């Protein structure tokens, strides 16, 4: 046997349990690497916990205690009994009492209430005379899930609750008519609810990921060191990273809205200029948050994970998929801290209700505050990186 063949035979001989030893070594290496990657390890724990918590406690497809306003044009015992009976159904929670039709309409248009009840003048006297007057219940139907169940249960529940007060026979006959008016989406078309919300949902996902990956990509490639050596300030770096994606997001929003109008017949009753301005504000807010994420993570995988960690509660707690008013109070507080919550209200109000700026002041101010907060954190953390 030649020397070459001897060497080849020795190399061909596997040591005992060689395969399992090498596999075990790789296994140990991966666990050590996972332990060092604390962000990824936290995502492994937090994502299932978050999903179980949100779906188990926060999501409710049959919302209760929906904010309701009442327009009372007379103060009568029957009117108070009707309002009490409605509140006892657990669907309605009276939060405002108004005295003019203008206030009544403004509350519905701004989204401060989901229902409005109008008790007309001379209502009780007409009931006593047997004239069968009408009780008007106006509903904000931009979210058909939130309004549909309440309107469907309204008649039988009120009739049952007032049976003893009105003494109208057995079985009781309703001595007045409940005239329900579903505003802004009377046909309860789900497309009118989903398409405007998709504008904010898609922008949230893409803007967060684009910006977070943009900065971490430079860190991984080593080009960030060259950038830091230049005479440039942290604010200038941030604006240079954000502004191009503002244009990208605006193109995306225009495309989604155009498809919604042309293919699905979604109306735009409000100002397109106002919609464009507030969409730009929303895009900038999400880009600022994505930039903040890029200052926290060390690589693109972590950036993607953190973006999805933020996107999950955004889509579930914003009112896009499930009625916001039906969530528990703690979930609503979390939702108010998410930009998508405010933009969903804005885009639905402008497109379906024809809302103006005076109707959207709260949500606009919330977006501005969230944008400034995220920018402050991003610049502060980036300055620490420079130091």
UniProtKB/TrEMBL annotation:
Q: Which InterPro entries match?
A: ABC-2_transporter_component, ABC2_TM, ABC2_TM_bact-type
Q: Would the keyword Membrane turn up in this protein's UniProt record?
A: yes
Domain ABC transmembrane type-2 residues, every copy? 147-385
Looking at the UniProt entry, the stretches that span the membrane are 39-59, 194-215, 242-266, 272-297, 309-331, 364-382
Q: How does it sit in the membrane?
A: Multi-pass membrane protein
Q: Which UniProt keywords apply?
A: Cell membrane, Membrane, Transmembrane, Transmembrane helix, Transport
User: Subcellular location, in the record's words?
Assistant: Cell membrane
Q: What superkingdom does the record give?
A: Bacteria
Q: What is its main location?
A: membrane
> What family does this belong to?
Belongs to the ABC-2 integral membrane protein family.
Q: What is this protein called?
A: ABC transporter permease
């Amino acid at each position: 046997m030649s020397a070459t063949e001897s060497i080849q035979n020795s190399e061909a001989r596997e040591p005992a349990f060689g395969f399992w030893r090498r596999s075990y070594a790789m296994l140990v290496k991966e666990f050590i690497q996972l332990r060092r990657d604390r962000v990824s390890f936290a995502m492994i724990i937090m994502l299932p916990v978050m999903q179980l918590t949100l779906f188990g406690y926060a999501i409710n497809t049959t919302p209760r205690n929906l904010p309701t306003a009442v327009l009372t044009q007379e103060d009568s015992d029957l009117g108070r009994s009707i309002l009490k009976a409605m509140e006892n159904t657990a669907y309605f929670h009276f939060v405002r009492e108004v005295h003019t039709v203008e206030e009544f309409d403004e509350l519905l248009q701004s989204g401060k209430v989901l229902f409005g009840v109008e008790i007309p003048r001379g209502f009780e006297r007409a009931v006593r005379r047997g004239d069968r007057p009408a009780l008007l219940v106006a509903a904000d139907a931009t979210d058909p899930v939130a309004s549909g169940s309440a309107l469907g249960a309204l008649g039988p529940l009120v009739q049952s609750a007032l049976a003893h007060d009105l003494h109208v026979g057995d079985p009781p006959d309703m001595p007045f008519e409940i005239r329900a008016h579903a505003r802004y989406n009377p046909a309860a078309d789900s497309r009118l609810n989903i398409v405007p919300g998709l504008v904010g949902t898609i922008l949230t996902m893409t803007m967060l990921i684009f910006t977070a990956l943009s900065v971490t990509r430079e860190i991984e490639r080593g080009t960030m060191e060259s950038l830091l050596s230049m005479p440039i300030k942290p604010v200038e770096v941030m604006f240079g990273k954000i502004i191009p994606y503002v244009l990208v997001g605006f193109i995306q929003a225009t495309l989604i809205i155009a498809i919604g109008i042309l293919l699905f017949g979604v109306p735009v009753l409000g100002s397109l200029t106002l919609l464009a301005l507030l969409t730009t504000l929303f895009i900038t807010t999400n880009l600022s948050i994505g930039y903040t994420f890029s200052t926290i993570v060390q690589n693109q995988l972590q950036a993607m994970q953190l973006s999805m960690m933020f996107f999950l509660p955004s889509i579930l707690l914003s009112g896009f998929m499930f009625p916001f008013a039906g969530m528990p109070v703690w979930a609503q507080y979390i939702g108010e801290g998410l930009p998508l919550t405010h933009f969903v209200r804005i885009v639905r109000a402008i497109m379906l209700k024809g809302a103006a700026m005076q109707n959207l002041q709260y949500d606009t101010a919330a977006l501005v505050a969230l944008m400034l907060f995220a920018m402050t954190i991003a610049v502060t953390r980036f300055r620490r990186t420079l130091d």
